[in-house]
Design goal:
Blueprint: E1 2-13, E2 22-28, E3 31-32, E4 39-40, H1 59-62, E5 74-77, E6 81-87, E7 106-113, E8 123-132, E9 134-135, E10 140-141, H2 142-148, E11 152-156, E12 164-174, E13 184-187, E14 189-195, E15 200-202, E16 206-208, E17 241-243, E18 266-270, E19 273-276, H3 284-304, H4 311-328, E20 396-398, E21 401-403, E22 429-434, E23 441-445, E24 466-474, E25 486-497
Parallel strand pairs: 5-14
Antiparallel strand pairs: 1-25, 2-3, 2-6, 4-14, 6-11, 7-8, 7-12, 8-16, 9-10, 12-13, 12-14, 15-17, 18-19, 20-21, 22-23, 24-25
Helix pairs in contact: 3-4
Length: about 500
């Protein structure tokens, strides 16, 4: 069976809302785990960035589709710094992370589970390890700092937590429409295995949904009229931790990870999909058969690709095409580069600010810390600390003890003192403030010309004698009021011609 491939372009409508956002990936001590790896997120790319406004829904735990786990679980050393990244375009980190008008608090929750893959997420067992609301000393919300930090929210896990499987849940609450009771929640969940011999557990846990109720002050606060310093973050305070020794309901610590591991024979990956080597061959029929197995894996890769994209699938597609080329050239000693791991090297970043809890009913008086990054080392390594007005530390607070995370950080510019009613951005977006009654926020959007989708390309017809398969990669343009715009889609059609014997 012979196989060829072509790439086509098509135009598709993808309704969304301007600068809505997705928790797309996470880093452990500054090392990327890969786009979409071990992340539960909404699987429909056209709606992946939509917020949640039904606080009673089970989707509040890990987002829509979040009651179903993904195959990967990432190992996390005790006391690590976790960095979660938001993107308005889940497959393009170069776009803005969140609209500047979406102001509000951030939080990170954990849930100890028996299985990070099988747990349904919704229900009791959640406890907060971090929150950050409004800081009056710098006139900034947590979202202001998150945006300035490339959409990255970093928190240091409490040292000595009970080891085992957890769901880690970052959360942002956008309050720009909260005067109508429409606070918008953005969340996702990372599936992790905490490598720890510790015994600390939370004294109390909460249920999600259930930890926040419609109509409560935290979800209908008017940020344009009220004193922002009086805002109370939704949910419980940061959890106090206690030893699990002698606590009947403490659960069982797991000491070794057995699920969600990368297979030993994997040589490629895309989010939660793995590619494995195809059979060796020494004749023409074996060559085409090996190529066919490669293309079947590629089909599975594209089908499994989350909203964060299919870059790993594109790498695997080159491998399949290489086998095809070898078969056409009558080179039957293969596959080419047998056993070579095609997975790109993990990116290491400077995580920037590692935030301290502020405005959530706990001590917010921790020292303000920044640290210089060191090249070619995990970016959670500490350096010299300084105190400035423009910077706020990001540390984890557990119980009565506040521990400032020692992580490199970059300075966040001081906020503008102008009112939001007249604000406009260099990106072509204008924001409206409160109306005369102070009830509503109105937003006017101008989409930059550079973000308009190109005209569609007519798809090619499937040649006679070929079997065609279509795979799709999507990008999305977002606008307010759910005005439908075009977004670019790319299709790869694999032409498969029958011939030869197996």
């Amino acid at each position: 069976m012979k196989t060829q491939s072509i790439v086509l372009a098509a135009l598709a409508a993808a309704p969304s809302a301007l600068a809505h956002t997705v928790w797309s990936t996470f880093y452990i001590d500054g090392v990327s785990q890969g786009d979409g790896v071990a992340m539960r997120m909404r699987t429909d790319p056209a709606k992946a960035s939509f917020p949640l406004e039904d606080y009673s829904s089970t989707d509040m735990a890990c987002n829509v589709d979040g009651t179903t786990g993904v195959p990967r679980v990432q190992s996390v050393p005790d006391g690590s710094t976790l960095t979660f990244e938001m993107r308005s375009w889940p497959n393009d980190a170069s776009k803005e992370s969140l609209d500047e008008g979406h102001k509000g608090p951030c939080a990170v929750y954990l849930k100890k589970v028996d299985s990070a893959v099988d747990d349904k997420a919704a229900g009791d067992g959640w406890f907060k390890v971090f929150d950050h609301g409004y800081d009056s000393s710098s006139d900034q919300w947590c979202t202001d700092r998150l945006i300035a930090n490339k959409g990255r929210l970093s928190v240091k896990l409490p040292k000595g937590l009970q080891g085992g499987y957890y769901l880690a849940r970052p959360e942002v609450v956008a309050l720009h429409n909260a005067t109508d009771g429409g606070a918008q929640f953005y969340m996702g969940c990372a599936q992790v295995f905490l490598e720890s011999s510790g015994a600390l557990i939370p004294e109390e846990t909460v249920s999600i949904p259930g930890y926040v109720q419609a109509g409560e002050p935290s979800v209908k606060f008017n940020i344009y009229v009220n004193k922002n310093a009086e805002y109370k973050i939704p949910g419980p305070p940061v959890a106090k931790l206690t030893s699990s020794s002698g606590v009947a309901a403490a659960g069982t610590a797991q000491t070794a990870q057995t699920e969600g591991l990368r297979p030993d024979d994997a040589i490629a990956e895309n989010a939660n999909w793995f590619g494995t080597e195809v059979p060796s061959y020494s004749d023409e029929s074996g060559c085409w058969a090996s190529g066919e197995k490669c293309w079947k894996q590629l089909d599975a890769c594209y089908k499994a690709a989350p909203p964060t994209g299919n870059k790993g699938c594109e790498i695997w597609q080159k491998k399949c095409q290489g086998i095809n080329d070898a078969c056409e050239a009558k080179n039957f000693d293969g596959p080419p580069n047998k056993g070579v791991d095609l997975t790109p090297k993990a990116e290491t970043i400077d995580v920037g600010l590692v935030m301290a809890t502020v405005g959530g009913g706990v001590d917010a008086s921790a020292p303000k810390t920044t640290a210089a990054a060191k090249e070619d080392k995990p970016k959670s390594t500490a350096a010299a600390a300084t105190t400035t007005k423009e910077e706020v530390p990001l540390s984890t607070v557990s119980g009565a003890t506040s521990t400032t995370a020692a992580a490199p950080s970059s300075k966040v510019p001081a906020p503008s003192k102008s009112e939001p009613t007249a604000a406009s951005s260099s990106k072509g977006y204008a924001y409206g403030g409160a109306d005369a009654e102070g009830d509503k926020t109105k937003t006017t959007i101008t989409v930059p010309a550079s973000e308009k989708a190109p005209a569609p390309t007519e798809p090619a017809k499937c040649p006679e004698g070929f079997e065609c398969h279509t795979v799709v990669e999507m990008e999305y343009v977002t606008v307010t009021e759910y005005v439908t715009l075009g977004s670019q889609r790319r299709r790869s059609m694999h032409w498969r011609r029958h011939g030869g014997a197996f």
